Every structure is written in C-alpha cells, then in structure tokens.
Amino acid sequence: MLMSNVGGIGGGGIAIPLVMVFFNFSMKPAIAISSFSIMCSTLARFFFNFNERNPDKKDSTSIDYGMTNVMMPLILIGSLIGAYVYVAFPDIVIQIILTILLFVLMLESGRKFREIFKKESEALAKKELEMKEQEHKGEDKEAGNPVKSGEIAEENIKPIEGENNRIGSAATS
Asked: What does the DSSP 8-state code read for residue 160?
C-alpha cells in the first residue's frame, strides 16, 4: 500500500488480493477494507501535500484544485455505480470483473512501457551516434595534416642550421 500511494495510485488492485490471501477474507469484506485503507492513505497524503508549493509556479499549490472540481463529480458517480454493482452481484462475478480489469490494465501498462522504452532507446542511440560523429570530427581536426601520405610538402622541410648543413661539406674541407 505504501509503495502504491507513493506512486500516486490508491492500491486497491494490490490490497484486495493481499487481504484475501493473507487474512482469508472473502471478496466483499476485502473490498471494504481496501476502500477504507485507500481513503485513509489519501487523506494522509492530502494533509502532507496541503501546503506544498508547485515547483514551476511559486504562487500556487501543488494540488490542482481546478482538476479536483472536474474529477470529484465523476469519482462520486463511479463510486455510486460501484456500490450498486457491489450489492447486486455475487462474489465470484465481482472477482471475475476485477480480474479482467486488472488484466486489461496490465496489458495497457505493458504496451505503454514498450512504447516509452522504444522512444527512449531511439533517442539514446541517436545521442550516442551524434557523440561518436563529434569524436570522429575532433580526431580528424587534430590529425588534420596538410601532407597526404607519400607526399612531402616543402613548407614542412626545415633547413638544419650550422656550418655543416650542406651535403658533402665535410668532404670538401
């Protein structure tokens, strides 16, 4: 639950199976316990983040109250529908519905993971390629010699100073 809350999700998909397996509850009491624990963790998180400031906008809070005004009616409608489903269907039907929901969410998360991984891998490969090209350009500039292999440029030949700078000068003297 703690890791789910830190990640920004309530954790019902984690809490319900854990309560059912470890505490031997049936589906309906497990849902009630999960809902209560999610409410408690959400309230605690709200009180911790109540005065936190937005890092991008120093004059506003980190909680977007405009978004909460839009989301709250939808959440209340969803809770109302969920309460009717909870009362109307037996445990096995609810368990099947939640299992299908978790499976669909798992597939969507996997698809999104692959999509993000592909984009990040392509960006990383492009960045590495650009770095290699820059390294090769730097090596070419450092090794940039006006003399091609097998040729001798006249400006690279320096005369030897001193009295014995001519070939055969020792033989003539």
From this structure: P
| Residue 51 lies inside a defined structural domain of this protein | no
In this structure, is residue 6 part of a structural domain? no
Residue 51: how many other CB atoms lie within 10 Å: 9
Place of tokens 């980190």: 62
Per-residue pLDDT of the chain (173 residues; tens, 9 = 90+): 666 666 656 667 778 888 888 899 888 888 888 888 888 888 888 888 788 888 888 788 877 888 888 988 998 998 899 889 888 999 899 889 888 988 998 899 899 999 999 999 999 999 999 998 888 877 666 555 555 554 555 555 555 655 555 555 444 54
Would 123 be classed as within a structural domain?
A: yes
- For residue 112, the enclosing domain spans 91-138
Rounded CA gap, 135 and 103, in Å? 47
| Residue entry with tokens 């003297």 | 173
* Residue at 106 is within a domain: yes
The count of domains in the chain is: 1
Q: Tokens 């009180």 identify what position?
A: 47
Which DSSP string corresponds to 95-130? Answer: HHHHHHHHHHHHHHHHHHHHHHHHHHHHHHHHHHHH
